Amino acid sequence: MTDARAGRRCHHVLNPLNAVLYFSPEFTQAMRGIGLDTDDDAPGSFFGMRGYFAARSAAMGAVGPGTVTATFFNFSHELISRHIPHAWAIASPAQVLAARLAAADLMLRRLLGDEAVGSKEMAEAAELAVRAAEGAGRSGRPLYAAEADQPWAKAPHLALWQAATMLREHRGDGHIALLSHAGLDGIEALVSHTASGRGFTTRAAQTIRGHSAGDWAAAQERLRERGLLDADGELTPRGAELRKELEYETDRLAVGPYERLGAEGTERLTGLAGVFAGAAVGAFPQGLFGK
C-alpha cells in the first residue's frame, strides 16, 4: 500500500475510540477512585487534568514534568507541573494504567452495548488493529514505545482500545518531530492548528492546554511575523500550505502500521472501526471542536 491517505482515514476512525475516554464519566470516576481527582482545574475544564496527565504518561513510568511537557508538546509546562510529579505520590503508574483500562471497559460497554462488544466484528477489528499497532517501530517514538511495552488485554474491545491508543501515539510522535522541524513550538503549533478550523475551539484549546490569553496572543504575533497568520488570526495562504504539508508528511511517517495490513486490511479495519467510532464521536462534549 503506497497511499498514506488510507492510513489517515483509518486513524481518523480509530482515534475517537481512544480520545473520548478522557472526556468520559467512567474515566473521571476511575481517577477519583485512586485519588487523582483535583479541584484546582480551570473553570470550564472538560476533564480532570491530573488524571489525564498521569494516564497518558503512566506507560513511561513515574516521569517528571519535563518529560511530559516534551512528549505532550503543546501543553503549558506550568499546568503540567501542577500535577506531575505530584500524581505519583498518590498513585503508582501501574495503578493508573489499571484504572485507565477499567474505565475504557466500562465506557465502551456503555457507548457500544454488550452485543457489539462481544461481536465477531469487534474481534476482527481488534485483530487487525493489534496487527497494525505491532508493526510500528519504537525508535524516536517515546509515547508509542511506552504503550507498546504494555501487555495486551485479552478482551477484544480492550485490545482494540489499546491498539487505537498506540496508533494515536505513534502518529503523534511523528507529528511532533515534524512540528519541531518546521520551527513551531507547542503553543504556535496549537494556535495554527486551531486557526485551520480542524482542531479545538480557541476556548477549549486554551483551557485544556493551559495557555493564557496573553501567551496565545504572543504566539499569534510570532506566527504573523513569519507570514503564517493574518491580522484577523486566520491562516495566510503560506500558513495553510504549511499545515497541509505537515499533515501530508505526518501521513507519510505514520503509514508503516497500515502497510503491514495492506490496502485491503486497512480498508476493512476502517470500515469496522468506523461503525464503533460513531458512538464515540457523539460522546464528545459540545463546544470542543471548531473555531
UniProtKB/TrEMBL annotation:
This is SalK. It comes from the Bacteria. InterPro entries: HTH_67. It comes from Streptomyces smaragdinus.
